[in-house]
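Worked problem 6 (solution included).
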Amino acid sequence: MRWLVGWSSTAAAAVGPGSAGATGYDGETVHPIGSQLLWGDPDPLWAVGDWRPDEVRVVKVDAQNRIAVLGTCGASDEELRLGLFTARGGALRHLTAWPGSYTAVVQVGRRITVCGDLAGARPVFHTPWAGGTAYATAALPLADLIEANLDFGHLAALLAAPDVPAALHDSTPYEGVRRVPPGHALILRAGAREIAGYEPVASLAVAAPTADPDSAVDAVRDALVEAVRTRLAAPRHVPGIDLDPGPVPGMGPAERRAARGMPVPGIGADLSGGPASGTLALLAAGLPGRPGTLLGHGTGAGERLLAVTFNDLAVGGREAELERAGTLAANPRLHHVVVTGGEELLPYADLDGPLTDEPGPSLISAARHRVRLAAGSADHFTGYGARQVLDAHPARLADLLMDRKRRHLVRPVAALAKADGSVLVPARVYGAARRLARTPYRAGLETLADRLLRRRFEDPGGAVGASLAALTWARPGPAARWLTGEALAEVSVLLQGAANRSGVGPGQRPGDYRARAALARHAADLRVLEQAAEVRSQRLHAPFLDNQVVRACRALPEALRVQPGARAEILRTVLEGAGVTGLPPGWGAPSHASASAATRTGLRVAADSLISLFTTPLLAEAGLIEARVVRKALRGAAAGEPLPLDGLADLVSLELWLRRLLARRGTCWSGTPARARAVPSGIAPRRGALASGG
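Solution. The predicted structure is:
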C-alpha cells in the first residue's frame, strides 16, 4: 500500500520545531512508519510506502507556499507552479484537471488543501486529533492514530444499502474517521476543517444544454489518449532487478521473476476480449513512445506491449471473448500471454491475503486476479471503470422524461422488450420511469427506510426486472435480506435522519445521481482489489477513472448513452479516431454470464470452507447477522437456489476483512504506545452493538 498522511495543528507551537512529527495525547512525538518527509512543521506531510521517485513531486515557491503531487500526473513543474499560484486565491478545480491519476496537496500559509478525485479511487480521509486534524489517503493509519473502534452502523449500511450515499454518508469502517466525498476537497486552516466541492452540479430546474454527440465522443477520445500518453511518458521501471538471486538450474530470468511474483519490465495491458481492455491495449500499443517492454529485459520483445488474457479452464462460456482477444493480439505491436487457471483460481477458492484499508466484495477473487497480474508488466493497463462511466444506469430513463426527451426511450425499451419477450414491457418501464421522475429524493429515502423495516426484498427477475428495480432513488443491497432486524432498524434510522435533514437533496437528476453512486462504489472496490491482489513493484492503471476521462464521459448526451450497445460503439469511434480499425466481429458483446457462472461454481466448490467460516462469525458477534441464517443461504446457493450471489460475496468479504483486521498486531505509527492501533479491544459482544458514531 501507498498513501500520504499529514497533520494540521491549531497553532504553530503545537509541534516542536524541527521534530517533523505530531505530539500525541501522552506528549510523545509520532511518525508514520516507512515514510519520507515531504515538508515539516508546523503542518507536516509524509509519503508512506513504496512510492517511485517520479511519483512524488514537490514544487516549492517559498517556505509557506508549495504543492505536492503524488501519483501519475501529466503536468510539468511549471504547470504545477502556476497551479499553486492560482490556488492561492481559493480556486480548486484546476488542481484536478491535469491528465493522470494523482492526489494534489497545496499549502498556502497555514491553509492546507487536499483534493480527492471524481470517481473515488483516490479518496481522502480525516479525523480530529490532538486539537487539530489529521488527514490521509488511507483510513487505517488514521484509525491507528486515534485507536478507533469499529463503526457498526457503517458496516450495517455497507451490507444493507451499499449503493445509497445517504446511508453511508461520510463514514468509514472506523469510528471517528471520515471520508471526503468524491468531487470534493478537504481544506484545513490551522486545524479547522472544511469540505468544499470543486465540480459544478447541473440544475434540477433547467434541462442541461443538449451536447453534440460527435464532439462529446471526440472529447472522450482526446481524454483517453492523453491519459494513456501520460503513462507512456513516465520513466520506465525494471522491477526487482536488484533482487534477482542469480542463475538457477533449469530457470531463465522470466521463470525466476515469476517464482518471486515479480512483473515483467515495461508496459502491458489486460486483453480480456471486452471493449474496454481492448481499447486501452490498442491505444497503448499504437501511440509512439516505446510502449512495451525494455530491450534486454523480460521477453526481449522490444517495443511490443505485453497483453495478458486470463483463460478460466474451470468454467466455459468465454470462448467468443477469448477468440476476439486472440484476433486483437495478432497485432504485431502486441506480445500475447495467456494465463490459465482451474478450480484453484475460482472465486472463494483461496481466501488468504493481506489486510486492505477497507472491505470490499473483490476480496473473494483477489487470488484469481493476483495470478493474472503477476504475468503482467510493471505498468499494467486495466479497463476497470469503463462500464460505470460510459453505460447508462437504468434510472437515466427518468432523466430523459424530466428533460422531455421521450422519443429516446424507444430503442432501450424495445431492447428490453425483445429480451423479455413480453408486449407489456414498454408500459411497465415507462410507468416506472415516470414514477421516479415525479418522486422527490426525500420520498425515495423514506420508502427505502420502510422497506428495510418491513424486510421487503423482492428478487428482480431477468434484465427487465433488474431495470425496473433500479428505477428508484435508493434500493436495498443484495445482502440486506440476511441482516438481523436490529441492523436493518439501525440503517433505517440513518436513512430517516438523512431524509429529515434540512436542505436534503443530491442536486442532481435521479439517473445521474445513481450513476455517480455506482461509480463511487466500483472505484472503492477497485481500490480494495488493487491492495488485495498487489504484485510487488507493479502499478495498475485505470485510465477510465481519471478525472479528465470521467468529466468527458459525463458530458456524453443522455440520448446517446441509453442506446443499446452504446459503450462498444463509443469505444469503436474512439479507436477509429486514433487510427485503429479492423476490430473483430462481435466487438463489445456482453459477457456477464461467464462471471456469474464462475462465482457460482467457486461457491459450490468452496461451500464447506465457507460454512466453516460462518460457524462462529465476527459479523454475528457484532450483531449484524445470525450465523445459522447465513450458513443456510450458503448451502442453498451451493445447491443452485436462485439467491443473490453478490450479496453472499459482500457477507464473506466483510467477514474476511474483520478477521484480518483483528488478527493484526502492528501499527502504522512509531513513537506511540503498543496499544495505539485500530480496534484495540476487538469486537465486544454487547446489547445495542450497532450504536454508531455515524
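Discussion: The two ends are 26 Å apart (CA to CA).
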